[in-house]
Each structure stands twice: as structure tokens, then as C-alpha cells.
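Input (DUF488 domain-containing protein):
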Amino acid sequence: MQIKIKRIYDDKGSNDGIRILVDRLWPRGVSKEEANLDEWWKEIAPSDELRKWFDHDEDKWAEFKKKYKKELDDLSSELTKKLDELDLRKTIVLLYGAKDENHNQAAVLKEYLEEEV
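Output:
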């Protein structure tokens, strides 16, 4: 399984594969048609409490990763079910809306999936 991350505001690439939005909230300024999604895993995104606490503060990054991975552990059966429904021979693109390309939930989820699967 190959996993990539990409901002939802970037154009869809010809080799994007399965496009999955991993934000709890719908990104501003993007229509459903423009998003060109295959899935929206809002239940897998960080909880509202964690998302608000982190607030894209890079100083909280290490703690955010730890807390989000704990949430993912708690959601492991749901995450496994969602992965089982995908064709894992295709590239998976985890889409996010944050401006920071390195410090966002998609980066943590990618790392988590690569460690766990």
C-alpha cells in the first residue's frame, strides 16, 4: 500500500489513486465536485477537542502526534474496516485542508498506517 498526503486545494493528479479527506470539518472554499473525493473519513480525523487544542501550533506538534495516535489506537477496528473496503493495490492519497504541509493530521495518519499496517 502506497500512501501520500496532499492538500485538498491542490489539483487532482493523474496518479492520485484513492482520494480520502481526513478532516473532521469540510474545507472552506472547496465544492464537493472540486474535491473529487472517493471517501471522507471524518470519524478518523482528530477529535474536535484535540483539533482545537492543537490549533496548528508547531510547538504542540510532538504532543499532538502522541495524542492523535492514541485516538487512532482507540479507533483501530473502525480504521481496519475502512481499509478493508479499499483496493490497497492503488495509491491512497490522504487529503487535508491545513496550510502547514508537514504538521497536520494527514502526516500523522500516514505515519500511523505505515507503522501499523
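Strands lie at 3-7, 18-21, 39-40, 92-96.
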